[in-house]
Amino acid sequence: MLLFCPYTGIGQNNTADIESLIRVWGAVKYCHPDIAKGDTDWDNVFLTHYAWIMQEKGQNTDSVYHSWLGDSSKAIRNGNPEDICTEAEIIVRQFSDTNHFHPALARQLSKIITDGVPADSWYAHTARSKKTTPAYTPCFDHEHVYTDSVFPSPPMRMLTLARYWNTIEYLYPYRHMMGVRWDSVLKSMIPIFAGANDTLSYHLAINELIASLHDNHSYFNTAVTISHFGKLFPPFQFRFVNDTMVVAGWRQKDSTDYGILKAGDIITEADGQSINERMQSRIPYITGSSPATLRRNSYMLLNSKDTLLSMTVHRGDSTFPAVIARVPYSSIAIQDKHKEPYRRYNDSIGYIDLSQLQSRKVKPTLRRMKHTSAIIFDLRRYPNWTVYKLAKYLVPRHTTFCRFTIADKKHPGCMKTYATMRCGKRRHNYYRGQVVILTDEYTQSRAEFTVMALQKAPKSITIGRATAGTDGNVWEIVLPGGFRTWMTGLGVYYPDGKCTQFSGIQPDIEVPATIAAIATGKDIILERALEYVRNNSH
Predict the structure, then answer these.
(1) Cα–Cα distance list, 278 to 275, 300, 301, 384 (Å)
(2) Above 60 in pLDDT, residue 298?
(3) Residue 320: DSSP 8-state
């Protein structure tokens, strides 16, 4: 297969030509059977042809792409082209734009995408995870690292964009749920990567690209970006109630003194900026699967290099200025992980904090709850791996509660069902009381997976707020420069095909956050659960 042709006549600012290069390069990388063998340095092909684009040599691009594709009759048929999956249909439609691709080229690209590649494709292979849940997920250990490229040349910067964008395009399990938005991300990021003229702007470009995925499992920072946003934190916690920033607690170790601030205070300005303006300026660099988790993940919103934080504060009917000293991360209090995981209310209602419950304690803890009328399972913090042990006592038969999808190794761009997950055990002495599941925007990943299983209990109800909308295991992506980021590697669906990614698990009874609850320290989700149990226990 001919790999290199002179490449001329493309203007330096012609984003459309660079976009075409990235798209075609990605399609060939993942879907062409010759490249699937791993014998060609496909990164080098990209770097060479990007350089030709920038040199404006005048060569027709289609002839170059045709040379990459070679004789498409050699493609490997792994199925009927008429059975092309929804995900691949979305990708194929990209190449039907005659403003970017000649019809003959589009037909060739469509053919290699639908025909498939060998199962051991060099760039699209999968590996067994060593984590708790056995699963085969995308593996990127064949990608070059380029550790000398912390601030690389323009072609290498664009390779970073091309590699990440196409990784998501062909291997991300929720790509088909993103519609055309991922296409628009490529268009918008090309000039940003091209114009990143120093280390900070380049690192921020990667940060913005990864945040565009809107996956809570995906995040990116470097010493450069951390320094830019500021290593000093406000000494208080804050939460958002809708778009309102509310003081929620104190962060410093061994301190209960709020100074001039109180829980429930509303902060409207910080360092001369409105909170809304500050949020809008940082949203491009914050990862979040939903508006609620975007706000949840904005913990660095008030960070700065400056020691003093000046604010405008509202409390009741009064408004006043406040100045408080920021603190380094080392002085922030660490959550206590040694509390008792369970307690009772009036002996008839049990409560279990699943972030504290260890696997070896599941059986004795549920024995203590045997004669209660209800057990409240709190999943608002990340749980230990207890889901299957819990389900053995709560779900009276072996029951399907979700299914996993992964990237199809033979058809990059398509997802296939990897496994159908079941929980529970056939038994007569299962727990017959009410099972109440507490959730909010901090209920994420393993916590959401646990919610899905516990919902199979015969008398289960979910109370609180929508979960984070980020379920599935986490897989590392290697980028040029030795940078690493992560993505969700498995698609997780209810048995009926309903997906919780981006939207979250919706509660049966919603309990919105309130400023009053934050001010008084009330756990209104738990209170609502107790109220429900007392009114519905028989």
Answers:
(1) 5, 11, 7, 36
(2) yes
(3) E
